[in-house]
Amino acid sequence: MSKSVAFLGPEGTYTEEAAILHAPGARHVAYPSLPDVVAAVDSAEVDEAVGPIENSIAGSVNDIVDALIGKQKARITGELLLPIDVCLIALPGTSLSQIKRVRSKAEALGQCRRFLTEHLPGVVLEPYDSTAGAVSSLFAEDGTVAALGPNRAADLNHMAVLKTGVQDRTNNVTRFVVIGREAPGRSGRDKTSIVFDFDREDAPGLVYAALKPFADAGINLTKIESRPTGEKIGVYYFLLDFDGHEQDDDVRSALAELQRHTAMFKVLGSYPRAELRAD
Amino acid sequence: MSKSVAFLGPEGTYTEEAAILHAPGARHVAYPSLPDVVAAVDSAEVDEAVGPIENSIAGSVNDIVDALIGKQKARITGELLLPIDVCLIALPGTSLSQIKRVRSKAEALGQCRRFLTEHLPGVVLEPYDSTAGAVSSLFAEDGTVAALGPNRAADLNHMAVLKTGVQDRTNNVTRFVVIGREAPGRSGRDKTSIVFDFDREDAPGLVYAALKPFADAGINLTKIESRPTGEKIGVYYFLLDFDGHEQDDDVRSALAELQRHTAMFKVLGSYPRAELRAD
User: Fold this and answer.
1) Chain A nearest CA to B1, separation (Å)
2) What is the pTM of this model?
């Protein structure tokens, strides 16, 4: 049986595009939420999952990280960088001049503001819960309504792509992570994601001390974020991405030193760093 | 004429609740997006604005910060902490046992998962673009549909609140910022928000050095975040909140030292720190 890969549904989203890019031959299974996606991997209901983690139109990093914190088996095993190509999609036969309303996720409408102002001035913008949902909703409309969404959603729904690349920023890239149960060994070009917190409420003041082991070892940090835990304002946890593998000697030492300061501490995963392929 | 305060619409959202809490007697004006909200303050179309900046059901920090970076006059002049009370809302006369479908923003559906599993097992969850929109959509339905949203949306739409506080986490608090054009003076319990970047691509590796002036001066950091700029993966900007006012001597020195390392640098605002009021 082919490998199964969970993704945040519905079908036709950028996340499904990423899941297909990651494992073209796999069986791709839509789940209703990112916590469900992570739980499906942890319970071995599926082999792997793909979800957005940064600069995403389709979802949020915190859902995945929050879900991973409590899991025994699910961990980050890889990452993908996907250029986000937003398409203007309508019923076949529609011309630009007919369009009076454009619907999509609010974030996608915002990301295409310049195109909409220049080419579709005065159209009514209709926020939708997902880009894919906006595209499939066109079935019930006449040719005066268009959607902004992924090429794949147009394909699945047999809709016409009037224009590709309508997003304002040409370098619109989303980072997705692969969730699996087996920790990959060293590839020589790895990064590691960790999450931790402190047992003091003014924890962000401790962050400088927590970063010292990495600075001393010359380990390059590639992401840092303090997130409110939701339990109480003023209580934060920290996300850190850095170059290196948890089995590297310098990383092991830095993590051991860091854990002298932390309360909760967890390695979310060490995995090969993705490079954006040049076109 | 009373003061005008912009907020991210539609009416009935938690953001409108925060805008009313901030300035009860003001004229509150709904805008379609957070960039529009910030632009309205910058162009003096309105006096002030209120928008979500952290742990929010209703929006995202980055929209406000992105919008503030390019503005000459608009800046953060205050903050508010609002406990988010999610209500189960339905047509008057509806009982729990009738409900077959529940709609809300996807984030709100996720935040009430425990309640839904325990009290409404098997209901269909319908993601909506806004909590307020989910509530007003109930007009077109019979009593088998309910919404999760703010008390204010129930009031505005003459709907019944079947249950309050249905969110899983009882300490669900959103931080909102006030945007204005006049920088507030020192209150003695201030915090400052800044944004900056570096001119090197491996910028996150520089963050430790950038934090040194604050650690040396004993200035407590209350938030730190690296954000992809959207221009290119690997190029980040940094958000920092810390205790103190930009006119304080130690803060001025730390900021001057920090600017020796940064490319872009901007003070988003110094403003009195909000405290969560005990009930």
Assistant:
1) 31
2) 0.80
